[in-house]
Automatic annotation (TrEMBL):
This is Fibronectin type-III domain-containing protein. Residues 181-276, 277-348 form the Fibronectin type-III domain. Residues 78-177 form the Ig-like domain. Signal peptide: none annotated. One of its GO terms (cellular component) is membrane. InterPro entries: FN3_dom, FN3_sf, Ig-like_dom, Ig-like_dom_sf, Ig-like_fold, Ig_sub, Immunoglobulin_dom, RTP_Phos/Ushers. It comes from the Eukaryota.
């Protein structure tokens, strides 16, 4: 009885030539410390041949097959480069993942970056040569919708061996946090000397608590700066002591334990107010001393748009008003109702 164990793909062989007169013969083949190279199809083959006579033809060989399927063992989880605690809208993010797997047969390293929906964002396959393999995924001009969990995974597969199963997917996940800008603030004039600055929290801050808000307001072409901080429950502040009819710009920023978010800006103009008095009021008599030419300069503070000027002429003795004249100019001539050598009071 001739019995053999054969593995054709790997060229291994063990055999038994049993001369005993028993009805059942057996041949065991043991594989210790199973390796990936032991995977494959194994054939048990036997035939009967005459012991002493060369004239007796051996029986045909009888074969039975079995397979040894080996699963590639798992390696270490992939390593992901450390991310910032949070990113701001418009930043660029480079997700970098690396893995090393020692292998003694030809294998492939298959790596992917996945989003929170398990959709593949980027993939890479390379021949495993026992060196570090790296895969990157870049998010340019990050937006709020890019916030979430990202997962790097890899497995090891055989390149050309149908009896070797790939390893499990080994994963490492990271969270990308994007701090949003607060919703557009409002700056509303409530008088000629005050404004109310109000805002709403960011659309999302990825569960990172807001601990407060910083604000800064400055005057345009006017010496004014106001900075301050308020708690996370305060969503408005009143600005006082402003100059009428001037433009002011403010920005508001949400603050977390990781720092400042992106500032949101707003502009507004305070209400108009009464102008200050005109400067350099002058008068001269003309035309035989019965007419006045009156002229003046602009007020130091217009406090708005000057529509016109009113000139009032009254008697010096009893303040009786003789004329209330309106003009858009910086001079006016008064030629009626005046008496020579009589004193008058002129106001503008």
């Amino acid at each position: 009885m001739n019995i053999q164990w054969l593995n054709y793909s790997l060229g291994s062989y063990t055999g038994l030539n049993d001369h005993s007169a028993v009805s059942e013969h057996s041949l065991n083949y043991s594989i210790s410390s199973l390796k990936l190279t032991d995977a494959g199809r194994y054939t048990c083959s036997f035939f009967v041949s005459a012991l002493m006579s060369t004239n007796i033809i051996p029986s045909r060989a009888n074969n039975e097959f079995t397979s040894i399927i080996v699963k590639i063992p798992n390696g270490e989880n992939p390593s992901v480069a450390q991310l910032k605690p949070y990113y701001r809208v418009g930043d660029n993010i480079d997700l970098i993942c690396s893995a090393t797997y020692p292998s003694y047969i030809t294998t492939n390293v298959n790596m992917q970056w996945l989003n929170s929906s398990n959709r593949t964002l980027h993939s890479y396959t390379g021949i495993n040569n026992n060196t570090e393999h790296t895969i990157s995924y870049i998010i340019n001009n990050v937006s709020l919708s890019d916030a979430g969990q990202y997962t790097c995974q890899y497995n090891i597969s055989s390149t050309n061996h149908s009896f070797v199963l790939p390893s499990d997917n080994l994963r490492t996940s990271v969270n990308v946090t994007v701090n949003g800008t607060i919703k557009s603030p409002k700056l509303i004039a409530i008088s000629s000397s005050s404004l109310i600055l109000s805002w709403s929290p960011p659309a999302t801050h990825q569960s990172i608590p807001i601990i407060g808000y910083n604000y800064t307001c400055i005057g345009i072409n006017v010496s004014y700066t106001m900075t301050g901080s308020v708690s996370n429950t305060s969503l408005s502040v009143t600005l006082l002591g402003l100059i009428p009819f001037r433009k002011y710009t403010c920005n508001v920023t949400a603050i977390t334990r990781y720092g400042r978010g992106i500032s949101a800006n707003v502009n507004a103009v305070t209400d108009e107010a009464a102008p200050s008095k005109v400067t350099s009021l002058n008068v001269a008599s003309v035309q035989s001393n019965t007419s006045f030419l009156i002229w003046w300069s602009l007020p130091n503070e217009a406090n708005g748009i000057i529509a016109n000027y009113t000139v009032t002429i009254s008697h010096y003795d009893n303040n009786t008003v003789i004329h209330n004249l309106t003009t858009n100019n910086l001079a006016i001539t008064v030629s009626t109702g005046l008496i020579e050598y009589i004193p008058y009071i002129i106001s503008d």
